[in-house]
Design goal:
Elements: H1 2-26, H2 30-39, H3 44-50, H4 55-73, H5 82-98, H6 101-112, H7 117-134, H8 142-165, H9 167-182, H10 184-187, H11 193-209
Helix pairs in contact: 1-2, 1-6, 2-3, 4-5, 4-7, 5-7, 5-8, 5-9, 6-11, 7-8, 7-11, 8-9, 8-11
Length: 210
């Protein structure tokens, strides 16, 4: 089982590599997934076994790769105050996504479709969760969820700004919003799941269309 798991992880990354140039023209589609699998020497059946949800699995792999790159680039948080930790975490995540700008635009277009918004929400939530954990957050009550909801929204909007206006403009936005992260006790009182989905959908649309 361990060897199988290792093979799957390595092959998933190979398929993602093969897909990145293809998604720019073909989008996150089954033809893209199958072509990427074939480029890695997989049969159609093997590709579907590896990525049973096809485009959705590919979108998740790209998000998780950027999460991993961001975490690997971050320093030891021990010497940073919490505000600096959150700022550094968001900046690292934006930098990681910007490495694959063209693919990320297609990623956003795919996730902006109403059918895929639950996946978009989950992926952004997971990114926010990983960044908060790196920052040392150990909350287990409702604060755990509020912090991640706020940061997920900031990540989506900041990424849209990063790809359309550049790093400086994106970080100016992050700096302006960091107070919301710090003051989540006040902000969370008005948080609604529907509002979060609406905000994420708007940010993803901006990512797609600029």
């Amino acid at each position: 089982m361990a060897n199988q798991d290792g093979w799957a992880e390595i092959t998933e990354q190979q398929v993602l590599d093969a897909a990145l140039s293809r998604v720019v023209t073909q989008g996150f589609t089954w033809p893209t997934v199958r072509a990427a699998g074939q480029a890695c020497g997989l049969s159609g059946a093997e590709t579907e076994l590896l990525l049973p949800h096809g485009p959705a699995d590919l979108a998740a792999l790209l998000a998780r790769r950027h999460d991993s790159l961001a975490l690997a680039a971050l320093p030891d948080p021990a010497g940073l105050k919490i505000r600096a930790r959150i700022r550094a975490a968001v900046e690292a995540r934006l930098d990681a996504a910007a490495r694959d700008e063209a693919a990320v635009r297609r990623w956003a277009g795919y996730l902006a479709l109403p059918l895929h918004l639950p996946l978009a929400t989950r992926l952004l939530w997971d990114s926010a969760d990983k960044l908060w954990r790196w920052a040392g957050d150990t909350a287990t009550d409702e604060n755990h969820y509020s912090k991640r909801a706020i940061l997920a929204g900031i990540l989506a909007s900041a990424l849209a700004i990063r790809l359309s206006g550049g790093r400086d403009e994106a970080m100016a936005f992050v700096d302006a919003r960091i107070e919301n992260v710090m003051a989540f006790e006040t902000w969370k009182a008005g948080l609604k799941t529907g509002d979060l989905l609406k905000d994420l959908a708007g940010a993803l649309a901006k990512l797609r269309y600029g």
